[in-house]
Amino acid sequence: MAYLKNNKKHHRGFTLIEVIAVMVIIGVLAAVAVSRVISTKEVSAITERDILKSHLRYAQLRALGDDHKWGIEFPNVSSYRIFRIDDDGTTKTYPYNLPNENSATHTLPNGIEVSGVTVTFDEWGSPGASDITINVSPGGGTITINRNTGFIP
């Protein structure tokens, strides 16, 4: 018995099971950290999709409260802007600003792109007789504006 007591006294270090357990925990934490870094761009795209939805709804509400048509146009893949069509048929962007913007134009962050057609809402909030689809990539998904009703899910 004295021999076992003496042996435990000099026992130092980790067992193989403890080392493996620590390595597994570090591996799991590293996998979670890497997945967070990879999906950052997708999170940004989803955020931009939600901002675009709110801007579309804003243009629709402006059309509902006005005798003019309002809409959103996509001059390129990295930006979009709000506009109003005057009585003479001219498209006007100034002096109308998007919500939480200092101008009529919203510029997307680097690497995020939007593709869509110009959306015009009439005094009833309708975009027309066909559904309109707008894509936000990479990983932002699709926005569909329902025909006639203008519902944006």
Contiguous helical run count: 3
How much of the sequence lies in strands comes to 15-25%
Oligomer: single chain
- What average pLDDT do the residues reach? 85
Counted beta strands: 8
Largest sheet: 5 strands, antiparallel
Q: Give the low-pLDDT segments.
A: none
* Beginning-to-end CA distance, first to last residue: 76 Å
Structural class: alpha+beta
Q: Can you write the helix and strand succession as a string?
A: HHHEEEEEEEE
In one word, what is the shape?
A: elongated
Radius of gyration: 28 Å
Secondary structure: helix percent: 25-40%
Account of the 3D structure:
The chain is α+β, with helices and mostly antiparallel strands. The chain has 3 helices and 8 strands; from the N terminus they run αααββββββββ. The protein has helices spanning 2-9, 16-38, 40-64, and strands spanning 69-76, 79-85, 91-92, 105-107, 113-115, 119-121, 132-137, 141-145. Strand 1 and strand 2 form a beta hairpin. It starts with a helix and ends in an 8-residue tail after the last strand. The model has no long low-confidence stretch (mean pLDDT 85).
